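#structure-requests
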Amino acid sequence: MQSILEISTRGAGLYEFTADVRSLLPAGHGGLLTLFVQHTSCSLLIQENADPEVQDDLQAFFHRLVPPSSDPAMSYLRHTYEGPDDMPAHIKAAMMPVSLQIPVSNGQLMLGTWQGIYLFEHRRAPHLRRVVAHLS
């Protein structure tokens, strides 16, 4: 099984798409699901999906860790012509996974109770992101 999911973002933040992934899985099948995002300024994460404060805190942490290029601490950056959030988005994507592997058993994701699959958008503007899903 191989499919492409399109995820619309409304700017920086975490976007859960666990239900979209579940809908792709053939009943009764098992294997290893690989998810791969086809972009260089966003990431994929498996993270808690019970308390939205977790997503808020993650976003705030990475914003403090890698602020926009307009921040004086980031004055060394040279790639700035696509906006103050572009190069920091590339740095964040280099620090976090762009692919995930998730076991599948009997057509079900083997995620833990509070785990969800997220696209972590690092850019401020809305984007349409593509994630390849491959079950082997």
